[in-house]
Automatic annotation (TrEMBL):
Alphabetized UniProt keyword annotations: ATP-binding, Nucleotide-binding, Transport
InterPro entries, alphabetized: AAA+_ATPase (IPR003593), ABC_SmlMolc_Importer (IPR050093), ABC_transporter-like_ATP-bd (IPR003439), P-loop_NTPase (IPR027417)
Keyword Amino-acid biosynthesis among UniProt keywords: no
Stated name of the protein: ABC transporter domain-containing protein
Domain ABC transporter: 3-211
Entry keyword Cytoplasm: no
Xref: Pfam families: ABC_tran
Molecular function GO labels: ATP binding; ATP hydrolysis activity
UniProt xrefs under SMART domains: AAA
Length: 212
């Protein structure tokens, strides 16, 4: 279940040159690769491209395969890719439990089975009993843990992390980063993380520097 990029490059709307040199990369199951580089080099655009959220007008080259399948022609919801963003992007109108239930794969049927899966996820996140809580009452670290568990409940083939720890205080950032990366490793899925923080890079298994 590896993530494979072959000669991937991106050209922004109205530009002639690619944001970065053609990129080839293989991310193994359970491995986290941290992508670094100067602002504007296309780190977040690369994440958006893999996840299927690249804005219209971009031109792309190369291929992206995941779990043996070419992602090129697939819409975002069919790619089997989970994404963690800075703001966690929990649904404000849903409880914590309902946010997690939203991520459950379709095969989990029945109210009791779904309730059990949500409870197990919250226990793993250290948030047992938070099912009915309003996401607005959670701390930044708690929201990020809920966001990760929601992504994992969907059983994705890969996880993308777009500056997800950037707004957390230093001590909390270390704890949440360790929590996220350990769960990715235990789930044996490949992860690609973009960051400006050297500590994020040190915590990853490998570091990739994007260059123009």
């Amino acid at each position: 279940m590896s993530l494979e990029l072959s000669n991937v490059s991106l050209i922004a709307p109205g530009a002639e040159a690619a944001l970065f040199a053609p990129l080839s990369l293989s991310v193994a199951p359970g491995e986290t690769v941290c992508v670094m580089g100067p602002s504007g080099v296309g780190k977040s655009s690369l994440i958006a491209h893999i996840g299927g959220h690249l804005p219209r007008g971009f031109r792309t080259t190369g291929t992206i395969t995941l779990n043996g399948g070419d992602l090129g022609a697939l819409p975002a919801e069919k790619r089997g890719v989970g994404v963690l963003f800075q703001d966690a992007q929990l649904f404000p109108h849903l409880s914590v439990g309902d946010n997690l239930a939203f991520g459950l794969r379709a095969e989990v049927r029945g109210r009791a089975a779904r309730r059990e899966a949500v409870a197990n996820a919250l226990e793993q996140a250290g948030l047992a009993g938070f099912e009915t809580r309003d996401p607005a009452t959670l701390s930044g670290g708690q929201r990020m843990r809920v966001a990760l568990m929601r992504a994992l409940l969907a059983q994705p083939y890969a996880i993308l992390i777009d500056e997800a720890f950037a707004r957390l205080d230093t001590g909390l950032r270390e704890d949440i980063r360790a929590f996220v990366l350990s769960h990715i490793a235990a789930s044996a899925i490949p992860a690609l993380m973009v960051s400006h923080d050297e500590q994020d890079a040190l915590a990853a298994d490998r570091v990739l520097h994007l260059a123009r």
